[in-house]
Amino acid sequence: xxxxxxxxxxxxxxxxxxxxxxxxxxxxxxxxxxxxxxxxxxxxxxxxxxxxxxxxxxxxxxxxxxxxxxxxxxxxxxxxxxxxxxxxxxxxxxxxxxxxxxxxxxxxxxxxxxxxxxxxxxxxxxxxxxxxxxxxxxxxxxxxxxxxxxxxxxxxxxxxxxxxxxxxxxxxxxxxxxxxxxxxxxxxxxxxxxxxxxxxxxxxxxxxxxxxxxxxxxxxxxxxxxxxxxxxxxxxxxxxxxxxxxxxxxxxxxxxxxxxxxxxxxxxxxxxxxxxxxxxxxxxxxxxxxxxxxxxxxxxxxxxxxxxxxxxxxxxxxxxxxxxxxxxxxxxxxxxxxxx
Length: 340
Known about the structure:
single chain, about 350 residues, alpha/beta, Udp-n-acetylmuramoylalanyl-d-glutamate--2,6- Diaminopimelate Ligase, Chain: A, domain 1, UDP N-Acetylglucosamine Acyltransferase, domain 1, 2 domains, twelve-stranded mixed beta sheet, 5 helices, 40 strands, about 15% helix
């Protein structure tokens, strides 16, 4: 794929400063740029590389002022980071549009349907009574169980498993190894000390524009549905248990776990390795710092929660200030005991 700098500037609603007729065919880090590559400069910590890079073009913000002479042609946009992200999306979408048709061997039950402009990779499997939308990309070794719905323009990368009755929205993206709709962790303790399996008969409903990271799991409901709201972004290796509800535009970082029947609000942010107990509610716009455990409901919207046992950040910092002084306080206590 090759474009002139002027063509890229037009796609990004930017302005060219330099030779717009030069061609680029590759995306480069600014510190590793070579001729024919296009880079971006957003964080001014990397500004020195602008004066050293061999990239043919660099995307910068419209208010950026160079302090030295430089070689690359500039593309000035409103925000360099956003502009380069748009360019990444354009390249990514261009590559995916080339994927069309069905590779063999693959299987789709006769009772299932798939919309136009789709792609089915080799060794993929689609069960009975499935409805697969338009322009859906199903990579090799994907498994789709019976009675599944997948919306338009969704992407299922290699090794994804979508279990029975799951409902997937439009423009969703599932990264390798993600499992949607596996059995919830339900076992009833018995008098003899053993556990009896509780059948998990519900499903998973995922709304539009959701992204699920590699090797993350979202369990089906015991009854009813586990629900993931529109625009939710879930990182790699995250566990969402049965009957959990996650509000729209919430972001959850890697190695986090949410136990059964927890209800998470809209626009929440969860750092890595957060742990949420079951049957509680987290208010909208809650930020949970990494490695925090939340043991009870968060009812006030907009809080930042921090600590091994989650608490309001102000209370945690006050407690931590005392905790740091414990050795000094202990020494003072010993001195007082000696004087008695």
